[in-house]
Write a structure and sequence with these properties.
The chain is of the alpha/beta class and 119 residues long. It has four helices and five strands, in the order ββαβαβαβα. It has a single domain, classed as Transcription Regulator spoIIAA, CATH 3.30.750.24. The longest helix is centred in the middle third of the chain and has 16 residues.
Length: 119
C-alpha cells in the first residue's frame, strides 16, 4: 500500500504540527516517513501529533522512526504524541512497551493538548 503523508498546524496553537499518516508504516514506507519527519524538524516543528487513524499497519521500523522523532523533539523542548484508535495499531505500542513512552490519545486534539500540557 502507498503511504500518503500530510501535515498542518493545529488550529488552536500553530506551535503544534499534525501529521496525517494514510497507509502502512513498514520497512518499505518508513524511509519516506523518516525523511518527512526530518524535514518538519528541520523547519522548526518540534511538537508533533502523528495522526495514525488511517495507518493500517505498523511494524517496528515505523515505531523506530517515531521514537527517533520523539528524541529529536525532546532535545528541542518539544514532543511527539500519537492520535490512534485502531486496536491493531494500539496493540503494537502495548506489546513493545512504548505505550509508556508516547502520549497516545483517541483524537488529534487531545494529543495536541497533551503536548501543550507537558503530559
Amino acid at each position: 500500500m502507498d503511504l500518503k503523508l500530510d501535515h498542518s498546524p493545529w488550529p488552536q496553537d500553530n506551535s503544534v504540527t499534525v501529521v496525517t499518516v494514510d497507509g502502512d508504516l513498514d520497512v518499505y514506507t518508513t524511509p519516506q516517513f523518516r525523511e518527512y519527519l526530518l524535514r518538519l524538524h528541520g523547519n522548526g516543528s518540534h511538537r508533533l501529533v502523528i495522526g495514525a487513524d488511517k495507518c493500517w499497519y505498523l511494524d517496528s521500523s515505523g515505531l523506530g522512526v517515531m521514537l527517533a522523532a520523539l528524541k529529536r523533539a525532546r532535545k528541542e523542548g518539544g514532543g511527539v504524541a500519537v492520535a490512534v484508535t485502531r486496536p491493531d495499531v494500539l496493540k503494537v505500542f502495548q506489546i513493545t512497551g512504548l505505550i509508556k513512552v508516547f502520549n497516545l490519545c483517541p483524537t488529534a486534539d487531545e494529543a495536541a493538548q497533551s503536548l501543550l500540557d507537558g503530559a
